[in-house]
Design brief:
Length: about 240
């Protein structure tokens, strides 16, 4: 797991660093990263902050979407065993000791049976479904951060380009007539720096969003199966 985390984080950093270097090469063979930041101004620093947040979101999702963080196998096994032998209070205590998406769902169902030992399966299914939807929403919401970043970053980059274009055209009024095309070309090339940087953040963020969205779907499917096992064990335990 550690190797997988390191590989994905390294991929994100490498993609961003490589894209910045490619950006520099497109504009000029001798341009430096420092000059890119000078061209982009404060908007480049804002994009850097967004890229750091995106990297933090990737690390968080790698940890939060682990199977053991959502449906711990040992906890699931122990809870089912306690339910089958009629130790519902002990099963609920196990859920309290290890909060996670599975434990919240299992605890809701177990608490209902403890409150009303004659509860039917339809009622349990409704309780589990309601709590399951809340937990699934939490799992999906975290991945949504990357989609938001992939949408916002290019817009911020475009804003920086518009500001840079405005500066470039303003400079034409104070430049010599013969040099106007040169000033315009230089200003436009510098203005495009922020748009390129925004895309360099958005593209990896969107790729990781697709990865974590599929991963979340698999975890939610595992959660549904585990929740069904809890309901089935509770219903059979009342027979």
């Amino acid at each position: 797991m550690k190797n997988k985390v390191t590989a994905l984080v390294g991929l994100f950093v490498a993609m961003f660093a490589t894209s910045l270097r490619a950006e520099a090469m497109v504009e000029s063979p001798s341009i430096t990263i420092g000059e890119i930041f000078a061209y982009g101004g404060w908007i480049m620093w804002l994009l850097v902050a967004i890229s750091i947040f995106a990297l933090a979101a990737v690390i968080y999702l790698l940890v939060a979407q682990r199977t053991e963080a959502i449906v711990p196998k040992a906890l699931s096994r122990d809870v089912i065993e306690k339910i089958r032998v009629g130790q519902l209070v002990e099963a609920r205590n196990l859920c309290d000791d290890k909060p996670c998406a599975y434990s919240f769902i299992a605890e809701a169902a177990i608490s209902k049976v403890l409150f009303n030992s004659k509860v039917d399966q339809q009622t349990l299914d409704s309780i589990v479904s309601s709590e399951g939807e809340r937990q699934a929403s939490k799992i999906n919401a975290a991945a949504q951060w990357l989609l938001d970043i992939s949408t916002v970053a290019p817009l911020i980059g475009l804003f920086g380009t518009v500001v840079g274009m405005l500066r470039a055209f303003s400079a034409l009024g104070s430049s010599a007539a013969a040099a106007k095309p040169v000033f315009l070309a230089q200003g436009v090339s510098q203005a495009l720096v922020t748009t390129i940087a925004g895309l360099c953040i958005a593209i990896p963020a969107l790729i990781f969003y697709a990865f974590f969205r599929r991963r979340a779907a698999r975890r939610i499917s595992d959660l549904e199966r585990a929740a069904n096992d809890v309901v089935s064990s509770l219903v059979h335990g009342q027979d």
